[in-house]
Amino acid sequence: MFADTTAGAGRLGTAREALDLAAYGLRLRTGLTSTALGGRLLAAAAPLLAGTLCGLVALPGDTRYWRVADAARSGFDVPWQQLPDRLALLGLTVVPALLAVAAALGAWRAVRTLAGTVVLLAAVRLGIRLLTANVAPEGPWLTEANVWLLLLDATALLPYLAAGALILAAPADLLERPGRLPVAIGAGTGLLVTRAQGGYDSWHLMDGWTPLLLLLAPLLLLLCAARGRLLPAALGLAVLPLTAWFSLFSLWEQVGGVWRLAPLAVAGATGLLLTGQALATRQVGRAGAA
């Protein structure tokens, strides 16, 4: 069959067909096809994710706003070493807005291209942070100060990576209609969540129950997928990339280190997985009885 579909297609066509087959095989392995629960959940969450990415925008009063404004004013008039980071910063300001507009209009091919661009820009900024995280250039890299600074910067970039990757993972054949209302809901939710976290700024590290609430609420909504309720689960999936990393960072700060937080995180994740499995088994049992 592969030989028939690639006959006379040339090297580029053959490579494209091979990539398509590999991607489809990966979808089958991961349960992200258009008929599987995971694929349907991602498709339902895609317009919400497009909105939440737009809701990450830096507004006046946010410390990120001044960095964006400074990068826009400077343009190309900066040392070449700083140029990739400045351009990526501006790109992460403009591209998510274009992505939300494309999702609202139902231009899903453009949405996927823009989501890939968001992932690439965030990866560039994260890579630059990894290379420049050493606060003492002549000293060792793996120090507490360097790790803290890198994790802090990563918390503001991982939402772009995660949300963009989830949009790319959604089955294309389920993304056809415009999603104006979900995009608007996602943008509003993303804006509220980002403001609640102080724009991922270290001066606004959340104390008390706030980070735990922002972490558990979307995870609990995700459990609705086990009962076949995709819309609340999709909302939880759309919010989780925005809250997970900064909430974990704030909890890590409160408990006094990664190693103290790790057992709690493993126990919580195990409990949620077992609960989801129990709910899914119960749902299947009810469907079989009916």
From TrEMBL:
It comes from the Bacteria. The keyword Hydrolase does not apply. Keywords: Membrane, Transmembrane, Transmembrane helix. The chain crosses the membrane at residues 37-59, 87-107, 114-135, 147-169, 181-197, 209-226, 233-252, 258-280. The keyword Magnesium does not apply. This is Uncharacterized protein. It comes from Kitasatospora phosalacinea.
